[in-house]
Amino acid sequence: MMLRTLTFVVPKPKDRAMRAFMRRAALPMVQCIPSCRAAYFVRNQARKNEYMWVTVWPSAAALERARQRKDWKDVTGREEKAGFFLSRPRHVHYDVLLTLARSGR
Fold it and tell me: What is the pTM of this model?
């Protein structure tokens, strides 16, 4: 299993629009990709305009196939064009070594 993070800082005037975009476009897009196991959009508590988008994939190959999809490219292109990133976003991929799965809670 693989975890992908995208960390970025948003210009303060674009903050509200970026959150709306993530809710309206980015989350629905990954929900349509069957191999995406989970997606989280989180904010840094100390630095309110720093965000992280976390997705979980069964493999590096599944992530790469998702990144080749037209809808993925459309959404990421619109993020960049809208000026949501104060600086270049940072992508990091992690191999999941251990997991705790709880159900029924």
Answer: 0.86
What's the pLDDT score for residue 77?
Answer: 86
Domain boundaries, the chain: 10-86
Instruction: Please tell me the distance from the alpha carbon of residue 29 to that of residue 48, in angstroms, as a whole number.
Output: 25
Q: One-letter amino acid identity for 104?
A: G
What are the CA-CA distances from residue 40 to residues 13, 57, 81 (Å)?
A: 23, 12, 22
**Helix-, strand-, coil-residue percentages of the chain, each rounded to 5:** 40, 25, 35
The structural architecture, per CATH, of the domain 10-86 is 2-Layer Sandwich (3.30)
Contact 90, 44 (CB under 8 A): no
